[in-house]
Design a protein that fits this description.
The structure holds 3 protein chains of 3 kinds.
Chain A: H1 2-24, H2 39-47, E1 54-57, H3 62-67, H4 72-79, E2 103-106, H5 113-127, E3 133-138, H6 145-157, E4 161-167, E5 170-171, E6 174-175, H7 176-179, E7 195-200, H8 204-219, E8 224-229, H9 247-255, H10 258-268, H11 274-297
Parallel strand pairs in A: 1-2, 1-3, 3-4, 4-8, 7-8
Antiparallel strand pairs in A: 5-6
Helix pairs in contact in A: 1-2, 1-10, 1-11, 2-8, 4-11, 5-6
Chain B: E1 2-5, E2 15-21, E3 28-29, E4 34-39, E5 44-48, E6 53-58, E7 65-67, E8 71-76, H1 91-100, H2 118-130, H3 151-166, E9 169-177, H4 179-191, H5 201-215, E10 221-224, E11 230-233, E12 239-241, E13 243-245, E14 248-250, E15 253-254, H6 262-278, E16 291-295, E17 314-318, E18 322-323, E19 328-337, H7 343-358, H8 361-364
Parallel strand pairs in B: 12-16, 16-17
Antiparallel strand pairs in B: 1-8, 2-4, 2-7, 3-6, 4-5, 6-8, 9-19, 10-11, 12-15, 13-14, 17-19, 18-19
Helix pairs in contact in B: 5-6, 5-7
Chain C: E1 2-5, H1 6-20, E2 24-28, H2 44-48, E3 53-55, H3 60-72, E4 76-80, H4 91-98, H5 101-104, E5 114-119, H6 134-138, E6 144-146, H7 151-163, E7 168-173, E8 180-183, E9 196-199, E10 204-208, H8 210-227, E11 231-235, E12 238-240, H9 244-254, E13 257-264, H10 269-281, E14 290-294, H11 303-309, H12 313-326
Parallel strand pairs in C: 2-3, 2-4, 4-5, 5-7, 6-7, 10-11, 10-13, 13-14
Antiparallel strand pairs in C: 1-8, 6-12, 9-11
Helix pairs in contact in C: 1-7, 3-4, 8-12, 9-10
Classes of the chains: A alpha/beta, B alpha+beta, C alpha/beta.
């Protein structure tokens, strides 16, 4: 388990570094938000889920998709906007979705996923299932109305859901203390008589244990708010140089790098050796390189498919036309 | 706009009084129509219009006087209009007029603001038939069968009348030894035997003309009366090809012929000729020509002259290649608008064209 | 066939679908204990229990979003938003999520959601409670918007909406709830995206939806009786998808058209109809397309002002007469 966490963390790290590179090579378009610094939270949290549980995330979700078991090739191909991408090239970095692994989507609108995840929990409750929902969000989301409406609803209706606030200290460039009147974000649950906890997001084991407690509570009809505290090693997105952070802050973050810190810890415990570290790193690098190669070779979507996903049903009198085409011949 | 002035209708009159206006603003006025009754110092006189137009405004109302030479009304003779006034007609009316060949200028509109509506077409048809037709005193001994002009014939007639009556032209003829050209054409067609491309003499000619035009831009030009007159030298070379179609003479255009290969010209020309035969050419197909080639070689004509297709500056009339005595020569005649093209320029253009036709690799290379 | 009210037809459709399919449930404010602001869900809580008739806090974004999430897992929620004005609080969930989830994730998750909500003014409810903003949703690819004008359509379109695998907003209308009409006893859904020619005519096409489609029929009957004018009425029934073919075919026959709409004129539904006619029937038009719409003001409370601002049957008659005059097709009365 300890080693599995490490492998997962290294894979996420290498994947995100490769994504950043591909972005600068213009292989990836749009926005691209990375999980750098969040690897321990990704690994610990996702390991606590059952395969039948549902995951909703925000737009910083590549690592969670990988940890949920989605093939790195398909995640990278989505970043490249190709047909083999998890969302067939329709979603991009912010909108990964995989129905098979119950990965119910990354969402680009801050807070947009929170009511949806609550509704998924409602559906589980409606059908009397044993599954739970994990709804990830950033620290900034706790100021959105939809967050409060959803927590209230989940508590009222006793829904099987864990809200996870990944507190990396910054909403884009704004520190939590400057955006939230109660900066200990897990305390917001108290307004809804909801159980909550705060955990060190740089420690995968602590995150795993806390998530297990939270999920048990949710499955028993007591929704839960879990706050993980970690850092964001880079800017808000690939193109953000994070000049709002002082050099000292940046250096402190690098010093507390969760991947390196966890490696040292496992090394001291004798779980990791230098050879093993090198081997895991080489393995992750190879997986990621293969994913990038796969993505690059995957075909671009055909323009002929442009109208295929607007509606699930066939629609009469639909104007399936490209800009500039006449509506009536 | 013409001012109608108080006329002098008696030798002693200094001013006249408007007695009755026979036309009101908006009425059509033809020469000879009685416009107004004017009371002079001697008598009540009718005053007739000299010009055609529409009475725009009455300046002196009935019962009022005006001195000789003072404007009493204004007649709109259309001279102020640079473009013909747009006729207000609904889209439905425009379509029906197109289909039935109705000239909307002759239809009075009864809709809001004088807009022609469908009802106006229904009512205007009957009176049109009732119009008195002048019957000749005795039957026409030539026993003519009258064939009304279709729109294409109308356009041809109008354009060529304009060209023939308003453009001062000269013609110049030259000829070229086309033995090598014909041999090259055979070679090209042999090489393309399996692709179906078949290049005609005219395709090569269009290409050669386009290259000659590029060498002499002054021939690829139009006259413009703007200001004191301009020569519009066209940067693009669009060569029209005169085609006899079931509907009459049409001139579809090969665009940018100087930049197209002979086989591309051939494909375009074949498509245009096919559509001329099917009557499916569009206005766009026949627009923007800068020079025309008219070739009657296929009818065995040796030599002829053509009339310029305005607003183009020149046209080339091409005959058939004839053995003289053993090698075949082709004769062609340029008709040029002398306002913008001088004889020497036309001669240089013909010399370039002859050079190209006699060294046909330059045409295709 | 029974003669029932528009309200009863909606109720019958909901109840029938609840009985037919356990995945169908109702969610919204005051729909259970209170039996609905407009009593569409009267008796449902007692019959189906609180799980399937779920009262919510006043949190449109939260409960609409929750319904979307439940639909993603295969349930068929029917959301009641008390009036369309309050749907603005859920706009992000409807526009950014319900309408996008199928496309944005490459066709992996359907959203079989119904949002039912009434529009309409005329009840002296003032500016924020009297709007007709269905356009906001009809604008968005991925959404379907239907707008029944009769009890029969209220039932048939509601059945169709609940059985549809895409998100459908069912626009009800405050002024129509008490209107009555013949409704088939069977549960046959309508086809979403088909307009209905509710009255055949030769002189002029009147295009309308929701309340104004009912007004159009009254106006047509009156003009026939009093002036011998033969009006063809098209009830759009569906604003998206829009049945352009039916509109165009009618105008190609009558050569002129008037659009009646309860929303504001500028950028309104009528503008799209006029553009459709221009695209498909330009060469058949004998007059410009006229639109009759709400005055471009926040709807006032005071009765004379409110009445003046709302489009009326009299406004429709004026526009029809003026259009027919413009093509000289009105017989002298």
């Amino acid at each position: 388990m300890l080693l599995a966490f490490y492998r997962q963390m290294v894979l996420v790290r290498r994947f995100e570094e490769r994504a950043a590179r591909a972005y600068t090579e213009a292989k990836i378009g749009g926005y691209c938000h990375l999980n750098l610094g969040e690897e321990a939270t990704v690994a610990g949290l996702m390991a606590a889920l059952e395969p039948s549980d549902y995951v909703f995330t925000n737009y910083r979700e590549h690592g969670y998709a990988l940890a949920r078991g989605i093939a790195p090739e398909r995640v990278m191909a989505e970043l490249y906007g190709r047909t083999d991408g998890v969302s067939r090239g329709w979603g991009g970095s912010m909108h990964m979705f995989d129905v098979a692994s119950r990965f119910m989507g990354g969402y680009g609108i801050v807070g947009g996923q929170v009511p949806l995840a609550t509704g998924a929990a409602l559906a589980i409750d409606y059908r009397g299932g044993a599954e739970a929902v994990v709804c990830l969000m950033g620290d900034g989301t706790t100021n959105i109305g939809a967050f409060h409406e959803s927590l209230n609803i989940a508590a009222l209706w006793e829904l099987p859901i864990v809200y996870v606030v990944v507190n990396n200290g910054l909403g884009m460039g704004t520190p939590v203390e400057r955006s939230s009147a109660e900066p200990e974000l897990h305390k917001r649950a108290s307004a809804y008589r909801m159980a909550s906890a705060r955990v060190d997001g740089n420690d995968p084991v602590a995150v795993f244990d806390a998530a297990r407690v939270a999920l048990d509570s949710a499955r028993a009809g007591r929704p839960y708010l879990l706050e993980t505290v970690s850092g964001r090693l880079k800017g808000h997105s690939v193109v953000d140089p994070a000049r709002y952070r002082s050099r000292a802050e940046a250096e402190a973050l690098q010093a507390a790098d969760p991947v390196a810190a966890y490696a040292v810890r496992l090394h001291e415990q004798g779980v990791l050796t230098d050879d093993l570290i090198a081997g895991i790193d080489a393995e992750a690098t190879a997986i990621v390189a293969a994913a990038a190669r796969f993505a690059d070779e995957s075909p671009h979507p055909e323009v002929a498919t442009l109208f295929d996903y607007t509606y699930a049903t066939s629609v009469p009198n639909d104007s399936r036309r490209l800009p500039g085409e006449a509506l009536f011949a | 706009m013409i001012d109608i002035l108080m006329p002098r209708l008696s030798d002693t009159m200094t001013e006249g009084a408007i007695s009755t206006w026979h036309k009101k603003p908006g009425d059509r006025v033809s020469p000879g129509d009685v416009l107004v009754d004017i009371e002079t110092d001697k008598a009540l006189m009718e005053y007739e219009a000299y010009e055609a137009g529409t009475l725009a405004e009455i300046l002196i109302p009935e019962g009022r006087n005006a001195p000789i030479g003072a404007p009493i009304a204004r007649l709109d003779d259309g001279s102020d209009d640079i473009r013909p006034e747009r006729i207000a007609a609904t889209p439905l009316v425009r379509r029906l007029a197109r289909e039935r060949g109705i000239d909307l200028a002759a239809v009075a509109g009864s809709g809001p603001g004088g807009r022609i509506i469908r009802a106006d077409l229904e009512t205007s048809r009957e009176p049109a038939r009732e119009k008195p037709v002048t019957v000749p005193a005795r039957p026409d001994q030539r026993e003519p069968r009258s064939v009304p002009f279709d729109p294409i014939r109308q356009a041809v007639a109008a354009r060529l009348t304009e060209s023939g009556t308003t453009v001062p032209t000269f013609t110049a003829t030259a000829s070229a030894d086309v033995e090598d050209l014909l041999a090259l054409r055979a070679q090209i067609n042999e090489a393309h035997a399996d692709t179906g491309v078949k290049v005609s003499v005219n395709d090569l000619l269009v290409r050669a003309v386009a290259l000659a035009l590029r060498a002499h831009p002054g021939v690829n030009a139009s006259y413009s009366p703007e200001g004191r007159g301009h020569t519009l030298i066209h940067r693009r070379i669009h060569v029209g090809i005169a085609v006899a179609s079931p509907a009459g003479l049409v001139v579809p255009v090969v665009r940018d012929a100087d930049r197209a290969t002979v086989t591309a010209i051939s494909t375009a020309a074949r498509d245009l000729a096919g559509r001329a035969a099917d009557r499916t050419l569009t206005a766009a197909d026949m627009s923007d020509g800068t020079f025309t080639v008219s070739n009657l070689g296929m009818y065995g004509v040796e030599h002829f002259t053509a009339i310029i297709n305005p607003p183009q500056g020149a046209i080339l009339a091409v005959g058939a290649a004839r053995p003289e005595p053993t090698r075949r020569r082709l004769r062609y005649t340029i008709t040029a608008d002398h306002r913008i093209i001088d004889g020497a320029l036309a001669a240089r253009f013909l010399a370039t064209l002859t050079g190209l036709l006699e060294h046909p690799l330059r045409v295709v290379a | 066939m029974s003669v029932i009210s528009y309200r009863q037809a909606l109720h019958d459709a909901l109840r029938g679908e609840m009985l037919r399919d356990d995945d169908v449930f109702l969610i919204g404010e005051e729909i259970g204990l209170f039996e609905g602001s407009y009593k569409i869900t009267a008796g449902m809580l007692a019959e189906f229990g609180p799980k399937r008739v779920r009262d919510t806090p006043i949190a449109e974004e939260g409960f609409t979003g929750a319904a979307i999430g439940a639909a993603m897992l295969g349930l068929r929620p029917v959301v009641e938003i008390m009036t369309i004005n309050f749907s603005l609080l859920a706009l992000d969930q409807i526009v950014n999520h319900a309408a996008k989830i199928y496309g944005m994730f490459g066709g992996q998750a359907r959203v079989p959601l119904v949002i039912r909500t009434p529009g309409g003014g005329g009840q002296q409810l003032g500016a924020t409670h009297s709007q007709n903003i269905e356009l906001y949703y009809a604008f968005v690819p991925g959404m379907k918007v239907v707008a029944p004008s009769s009890p029969a359509d209220a039932k048939a379109l509601m059945l169709a909406a609940i059985r549809d695998d895409d998100p459908v907003l069912v626009l009800e209308n405050l002024a129509l709830y008490n209107t009555t009409g013949e409704v088939p006893d069977h549960d046959e859904p309508a086809e979403i995206g088909r307009a209905a020619v509710t009255r055949q005519g030769a002189d002029i096409t009147v295009v309308a939806y929701s309340r104004m489609a009912a007004v159009a029929l009254q106006v047509a009957a009156r003009l026939e009786e009093e002036e011998g004018i033969d009006v063809e009425v098209i009830d759009l029934r569906s604003l998206r998808p829009l049945d352009r073919d039916t509109i165009v075919a009618s105008v190609r026959k009558t050569n002129c058209a008037v659009v009646l709409e309860d929303d504001w004129l500028t950028y309104g539904i009528g503008a799209e109809i006029a553009a459709t006619i221009s695209d498909g029937a330009f060469d058949w038009l004998d007059a410009p397309v006229r639109r009759v719409a709400m005055a471009e003001v926040p709807l006032p409370y005071a009765k004379p002002l409110e009445t003046a601002a709302l489009p009326s049957a009299a406004d429709a008659i004026t526009a029809i007469r003026e259009t027919l005059d413009a093509v000289a097709r009105r017989r002298p009365s």
